[in-house]
Write a structure and sequence with these properties.
By secondary structure, the chain is of the alpha+beta class. The longest helix has 14 residues. It is globular, with a radius of gyration of 20 Å. The protein is built from eleven helices and ten strands. The protein has a two-stranded antiparallel ribbon with strand order 1-2. Strands 3-4 form a two-stranded antiparallel ribbon. The chain has a domain of 158 residues.
Length: 281
């Protein structure tokens, strides 16, 4: 068999690289991301599977017979997520409760009219946002001053709330790079320090088919491909990491697939633990 071959995986519907010795490219990582992070696997918890689950609970909360959760509990899911994984574990109960109370009771200042508008009214979200940036700014006004809530949580909360709207809103014009390792991964690709919010056109050449929400998700999941943690220290805002670039451009495509497939095989066979209050009732 020739060394440079690609075999089709009918289960995934994507081309699976098995014995390709050429160097890894961004599009190779994009293909792997699309094949394994579409939310179709019942075991994996992906960005999309979590948002779909929260949306189902939100739609049910208006039905007194089948609804399991109140709007307040839905907002807790939006702020903290459903599962005890990643940076979400760092949020304190007090910070979450204060953020949820601010969203329910508070009002944000509309950029155009100057009026103060509630984000949630009688269980329904304000729907007249022009784009994700406007929603993001509204969420930032409401929970940005809560002790323990940072820009990553503001983005994640806005992203989940945007998906609950009758006409869902997603990041389109910008890719949000708040999370340290996400920003470091993007900076390693472009060999320069990037802002916390970069125009999606910055990534158009390398990531082509991906929308901005998925570019951020990919950089988060596969940040280890682009960066190494060389030092770790704490400051008043929590844990901050210093990163260095890797020689990822010299990595072979076959090695990347084997390493990632091995990690997936070693994952627990069940979904990660839910936060206790989000267990189905």
């Amino acid at each position: 068999m020739k060394e440079n071959t690609i075999t089709a995986n009918p289960t995934l519907g994507f081309l699976t690289a098995t014995k390709i010795s050429r160097k890894l490219t961004i599009m190779d990582i994009v293909h792997y991301y699309l094949a394994h992070n579409n939310g179709s696997n019942n075991v994996d918890v992906t960005m999309w599977s979590e948002m779909n689950e929260i949306k189902n609970y939100y739609n049910e909360c208006f039905n007194k017979v089948t609804g399991h959760y109140t709007i307040k509990e839905i907002l807790r899911m939006c702020v903290r997520g459903l599962y005890t994984i990643g940076h979400q574990k760092r949020l304190s109960v007090d910070a979450i409760n204060e953020a949820v109370d601010n969203i329910i009771k508070g009002k944000f200042v509309d950029h155009f009219s100057g009026k103060r508008i509630p984000l949630v009214s009688r269980g329904h979200f304000y729907r007249k946002f022009i784009d994700f940036e406007e929603l993001y700014e509204a969420v930032k006004q409401l929970i940005g001053n809560v002790n323990g809530i940072g820009y990553v949580t503001i983005y994640d909360t806005a992203r989940r709330i945007g998906y609950l709207l009758s006409e869902p809103i997603f990041p389109i014009a910008y890719v949000y790079l708040h999370y340290n390792k996400v920003n470091a991964a993007a900076s390693a690709i472009y060999n320069r320090k990037l802002n916390y919010r970069e125009p999606t056109l910055t990534f158009a050449c390398e990531f082509k088919c991906l929308p901005s929400i998925c570019i951020e998700d990919l950089l988060c999941i596969y940040s280890h491909v682009f960066i190494d943690v060389v030092n770790e220290y704490s400051d008043v805002d929590g844990t901050v990491k210093k990163f260095s670039k890797t020689n990822w451009r010299n990595k072979k495509l076959s090695d990347f697939w084997k390493e990632e497939d091995t990690k997936r095989e070693n994952l627990p066979k069940n979904k990660p633990h839910r936060w206790s209050e989000f267990s189905k009732r």
